[in-house]
Design goal:
- Keywords: ATP-binding, Nucleotide-binding.
- InterPro entries: AAA+_ATPase (IPR003593), ABC_transporter-like_ATP-bd (IPR003439), ABC_transporter-like_CS (IPR017871), FeS-cluster_ATPase_SufC (IPR010230), P-loop_NTPase (IPR027417).
- Residues 4-248 form the ABC transporter domain.
- The chain is an alpha/beta fold and 250 residues long.
- It has a single domain (4-246), classed as Rossmann fold, CATH 3.40.50.300.
- The protein contains nine helices and twelve strands.
- It has helices at residues 42-50, 74-80, 97-111, 119-132, 137-141, 150-164, 180-192, 209-212, 232-241, and strands at 4-13, 16-26, 31-35, 56-64, 67-68, 82-85, 92-96, 143-144, 168-172, 199-204, 217-222, 225-230.
- The chain has a six-stranded mixed β-sheet, sandwiched between helices. Strands 2-1-4-5 form a four-stranded antiparallel β-sheet, covered by helices on one side.
- It starts with a strand and ends in a 9-residue tail after the last helix.
Protein backbone atom coordinates (compact mmCIF):
# COMPACT_ATOMS: atom_id res chain seq x y z
CA UNK A 1 0.00 0.00 0.00
CA UNK A 2 1.37 3.47 -0.87
CA UNK A 3 2.25 5.69 2.07
CA UNK A 4 0.64 8.78 0.49
CA UNK A 5 -1.97 8.90 -2.27
CA UNK A 6 -3.17 12.15 -3.80
CA UNK A 7 -6.03 11.58 -6.24
CA UNK A 8 -7.57 14.20 -8.56
CA UNK A 9 -6.98 16.95 -6.00
CA UNK A 10 -8.64 20.30 -6.68
CA UNK A 11 -7.90 23.14 -4.25
CA UNK A 12 -9.11 26.75 -4.16
CA UNK A 13 -7.75 29.71 -2.24
CA UNK A 14 -10.01 32.78 -1.94
CA UNK A 15 -12.15 31.52 -4.80
CA UNK A 16 -9.26 30.85 -7.19
CA UNK A 17 -8.37 27.27 -8.08
CA UNK A 18 -4.67 26.55 -7.46
CA UNK A 19 -4.52 22.76 -7.88
CA UNK A 20 -6.34 21.36 -10.90
CA UNK A 21 -6.73 17.61 -10.48
CA UNK A 22 -3.30 16.76 -9.10
CA UNK A 23 -2.24 13.12 -8.76
CA UNK A 24 0.74 11.87 -6.74
CA UNK A 25 1.74 8.55 -5.17
CA UNK A 26 4.58 8.19 -2.66
CA UNK A 27 5.66 4.73 -1.57
CA UNK A 28 7.41 3.92 1.70
CA UNK A 29 11.16 4.53 1.76
CA UNK A 30 11.21 6.78 -1.31
CA UNK A 31 12.46 10.34 -1.70
CA UNK A 32 10.46 12.45 -4.16
CA UNK A 33 11.53 15.87 -5.40
CA UNK A 34 8.85 18.28 -6.64
CA UNK A 35 10.13 21.08 -8.85
CA UNK A 36 8.34 23.86 -10.66
CA UNK A 37 8.16 27.63 -11.13
CA UNK A 38 6.63 30.07 -8.66
CA UNK A 39 2.84 29.78 -8.63
CA UNK A 40 2.75 26.19 -9.84
CA UNK A 41 1.13 24.99 -6.60
CA UNK A 42 4.07 23.27 -4.87
CA UNK A 43 3.68 24.92 -1.47
CA UNK A 44 -0.12 24.72 -1.72
CA UNK A 45 0.21 20.95 -2.01
CA UNK A 46 2.39 20.76 1.10
CA UNK A 47 0.00 22.95 3.09
CA UNK A 48 -3.06 20.93 2.08
CA UNK A 49 -1.39 17.63 3.00
CA UNK A 50 -0.48 18.92 6.47
CA UNK A 51 -3.81 20.67 7.07
CA UNK A 52 -3.04 24.39 7.01
CA UNK A 53 -6.29 26.43 7.25
CA UNK A 54 -7.47 28.62 4.39
CA UNK A 55 -7.50 26.01 1.61
CA UNK A 56 -10.78 24.73 0.18
CA UNK A 57 -10.66 21.19 -1.21
CA UNK A 58 -13.35 21.05 -3.87
CA UNK A 59 -12.61 17.56 -5.23
CA UNK A 60 -10.25 14.65 -4.82
CA UNK A 61 -8.84 12.45 -2.07
CA UNK A 62 -5.83 12.49 0.24
CA UNK A 63 -4.91 9.14 1.80
CA UNK A 64 -2.08 8.55 4.28
CA UNK A 65 -1.45 4.91 5.20
CA UNK A 66 -4.86 4.25 3.66
CA UNK A 67 -6.65 6.73 5.96
CA UNK A 68 -8.49 9.88 4.91
CA UNK A 69 -6.24 12.83 5.75
CA UNK A 70 -8.98 15.36 5.04
CA UNK A 71 -10.94 14.03 8.03
CA UNK A 72 -8.04 14.78 10.42
CA UNK A 73 -6.99 17.96 12.21
CA UNK A 74 -3.37 19.13 11.69
CA UNK A 75 -2.30 17.80 15.11
CA UNK A 76 -3.84 14.41 14.30
CA UNK A 77 -1.93 14.30 11.02
CA UNK A 78 1.29 15.06 12.88
CA UNK A 79 0.59 12.29 15.39
CA UNK A 80 0.00 9.89 12.48
CA UNK A 81 3.54 10.61 11.25
CA UNK A 82 3.42 13.69 9.00
CA UNK A 83 6.02 16.44 9.29
CA UNK A 84 6.41 19.74 7.44
CA UNK A 85 9.68 21.70 7.44
CA UNK A 86 8.73 25.28 6.66
CA UNK A 87 10.28 27.48 4.00
CA UNK A 88 10.12 30.38 6.45
CA UNK A 89 10.30 29.03 10.02
CA UNK A 90 8.59 31.33 12.50
CA UNK A 91 10.18 32.88 15.58
CA UNK A 92 8.62 32.21 19.00
CA UNK A 93 10.09 34.64 21.54
CA UNK A 94 9.98 33.55 25.17
CA UNK A 95 9.85 29.82 24.41
CA UNK A 96 13.18 28.01 24.43
CA UNK A 97 13.91 25.61 21.61
CA UNK A 98 14.42 22.78 24.11
CA UNK A 99 11.06 23.37 25.82
CA UNK A 100 9.27 23.67 22.49
CA UNK A 101 10.72 20.42 21.18
CA UNK A 102 9.96 18.44 24.34
CA UNK A 103 6.39 19.74 24.56
CA UNK A 104 5.69 18.99 20.88
CA UNK A 105 7.26 15.53 20.97
CA UNK A 106 5.47 14.50 24.15
CA UNK A 107 2.15 15.77 22.75
CA UNK A 108 2.62 13.52 19.74
CA UNK A 109 3.56 10.55 21.92
CA UNK A 110 0.48 11.11 24.11
CA UNK A 111 -1.75 11.17 21.01
CA UNK A 112 -0.28 7.78 20.02
CA UNK A 113 -0.89 6.32 23.46
CA UNK A 114 2.82 6.39 24.38
CA UNK A 115 4.39 7.72 27.56
CA UNK A 116 6.14 11.08 27.44
CA UNK A 117 9.89 11.56 27.82
CA UNK A 118 11.20 12.65 31.19
CA UNK A 119 13.35 15.78 31.18
CA UNK A 120 16.68 13.91 31.58
CA UNK A 121 15.78 11.37 28.89
CA UNK A 122 14.71 14.09 26.47
CA UNK A 123 17.79 16.23 27.15
CA UNK A 124 20.05 13.31 26.29
CA UNK A 125 18.11 12.55 23.11
CA UNK A 126 18.05 16.21 21.98
CA UNK A 127 21.72 16.83 22.68
CA UNK A 128 22.74 13.72 20.77
CA UNK A 129 20.66 14.75 17.75
CA UNK A 130 21.95 18.34 17.91
CA UNK A 131 25.56 17.17 17.97
CA UNK A 132 25.00 15.04 14.88
CA UNK A 133 23.61 18.10 13.05
CA UNK A 134 26.38 20.45 14.22
CA UNK A 135 23.88 22.47 16.25
CA UNK A 136 25.53 24.20 19.24
CA UNK A 137 24.03 23.36 22.63
CA UNK A 138 23.54 27.10 23.17
CA UNK A 139 20.94 27.15 20.35
CA UNK A 140 18.72 24.81 22.34
CA UNK A 141 18.52 27.35 25.16
CA UNK A 142 17.53 30.26 22.92
CA UNK A 143 14.02 31.29 21.92
CA UNK A 144 12.70 29.25 18.99
CA UNK A 145 14.43 30.66 15.88
CA UNK A 146 14.92 34.03 17.61
CA UNK A 147 18.04 35.65 16.21
CA UNK A 148 18.87 32.51 14.23
CA UNK A 149 20.57 32.81 10.85
CA UNK A 150 18.85 31.26 7.84
CA UNK A 151 21.05 28.20 8.10
CA UNK A 152 20.38 27.82 11.83
CA UNK A 153 16.62 27.99 11.27
CA UNK A 154 16.78 25.24 8.65
CA UNK A 155 19.01 23.08 10.84
CA UNK A 156 16.47 23.55 13.62
CA UNK A 157 13.78 22.20 11.28
CA UNK A 158 15.94 19.13 10.59
CA UNK A 159 16.51 18.71 14.34
CA UNK A 160 12.75 18.59 14.83
CA UNK A 161 12.49 16.00 12.09
CA UNK A 162 15.20 13.87 13.71
CA UNK A 163 13.47 13.97 17.10
CA UNK A 164 9.91 13.41 15.87
CA UNK A 165 10.93 10.53 13.54
CA UNK A 166 7.98 11.01 11.13
CA UNK A 167 6.94 8.54 8.44
CA UNK A 168 6.57 11.26 5.80
CA UNK A 169 8.71 14.40 5.79
CA UNK A 170 7.69 17.30 3.57
CA UNK A 171 10.55 19.76 3.08
CA UNK A 172 9.23 23.00 1.61
CA UNK A 173 12.22 24.73 -0.03
CA UNK A 174 14.50 23.69 2.82
CA UNK A 175 17.42 24.85 0.64
CA UNK A 176 16.26 28.44 0.16
CA UNK A 177 18.63 31.08 1.52
CA UNK A 178 21.38 28.62 2.45
CA UNK A 179 25.05 29.04 1.61
CA UNK A 180 26.95 25.99 0.44
CA UNK A 181 28.20 25.00 3.91
CA UNK A 182 24.74 25.26 5.49
CA UNK A 183 23.24 23.35 2.56
CA UNK A 184 25.68 20.48 3.10
CA UNK A 185 24.88 20.31 6.81
CA UNK A 186 21.13 20.29 6.15
CA UNK A 187 21.54 17.70 3.37
CA UNK A 188 23.60 15.47 5.67
CA UNK A 189 20.77 15.63 8.21
CA UNK A 190 18.22 14.69 5.56
CA UNK A 191 20.33 11.79 4.31
CA UNK A 192 20.80 10.52 7.86
CA UNK A 193 17.00 10.27 8.14
CA UNK A 194 16.54 8.14 5.03
CA UNK A 195 15.23 4.66 5.79
CA UNK A 196 13.10 1.93 4.18
CA UNK A 197 10.14 3.01 6.33
CA UNK A 198 10.40 6.79 5.89
CA UNK A 199 9.48 8.81 2.80
CA UNK A 200 10.30 12.40 1.92
CA UNK A 201 8.90 15.02 -0.41
CA UNK A 202 11.43 17.76 -1.18
CA UNK A 203 9.98 20.89 -2.76
CA UNK A 204 12.61 22.99 -4.51
CA UNK A 205 13.24 25.37 -7.38
CA UNK A 206 16.81 24.33 -7.94
CA UNK A 207 18.74 21.23 -8.78
CA UNK A 208 21.62 21.97 -6.37
CA UNK A 209 19.90 20.32 -3.36
CA UNK A 210 19.58 17.16 -5.42
CA UNK A 211 23.36 16.99 -5.77
CA UNK A 212 23.47 16.19 -2.06
CA UNK A 213 20.14 14.40 -1.52
CA UNK A 214 19.61 12.20 -4.57
CA UNK A 215 15.87 11.59 -5.09
CA UNK A 216 14.27 8.37 -6.29
CA UNK A 217 11.67 10.30 -8.29
CA UNK A 218 11.51 13.86 -9.65
CA UNK A 219 8.17 15.49 -10.49
CA UNK A 220 7.61 18.67 -12.45
CA UNK A 221 4.61 20.79 -11.47
CA UNK A 222 3.09 23.44 -13.70
CA UNK A 223 -0.19 25.30 -13.28
CA UNK A 224 -1.46 23.09 -10.48
CA UNK A 225 -0.66 19.66 -11.93
CA UNK A 226 2.18 17.15 -12.07
CA UNK A 227 3.05 17.26 -15.77
CA UNK A 228 6.10 14.98 -15.87
CA UNK A 229 7.91 12.50 -13.62
CA UNK A 230 11.31 10.88 -13.95
CA UNK A 231 14.60 10.26 -12.17
CA UNK A 232 17.36 12.72 -11.20
CA UNK A 233 18.17 13.22 -14.87
CA UNK A 234 14.92 15.15 -15.21
CA UNK A 235 16.19 17.70 -12.68
CA UNK A 236 19.36 18.17 -14.73
CA UNK A 237 17.24 18.78 -17.83
CA UNK A 238 15.25 21.42 -15.95
CA UNK A 239 18.44 23.13 -14.86
CA UNK A 240 19.56 23.32 -18.47
CA UNK A 241 16.33 24.27 -20.22
CA UNK A 242 13.96 25.72 -17.59
CA UNK A 243 10.23 25.20 -17.06
CA UNK A 244 8.80 26.88 -20.16
CA UNK A 245 8.74 23.57 -22.06
CA UNK A 246 6.13 22.22 -19.62
CA UNK A 247 3.61 25.04 -19.87
CA UNK A 248 1.86 23.55 -22.87
CA UNK A 249 1.61 20.18 -21.10
CA UNK A 250 -0.05 21.91 -18.15
Amino acid sequence: MPLLEVRNLHVCVEGREILHGLDLTVNAGKVHAIMGPNGSGKSTLSHVITGKPGYQITAGRLLFKGEDLLAMRPDQRAAKGLFLAFQYPVEIPGVTTMNFLRTALNAQRKARGQSGYSTPHFLKKARTAAKQLNIPQSMLKRGVNVGFSGGEKKRNEILQMALFEPDLCILDEIDSGLDIDALRIVADGINAMRSPDRSMIMITHYQRLLNYVVPDVVHVMSKGRVVKSGDKQLALELEASGYAQFEDAA
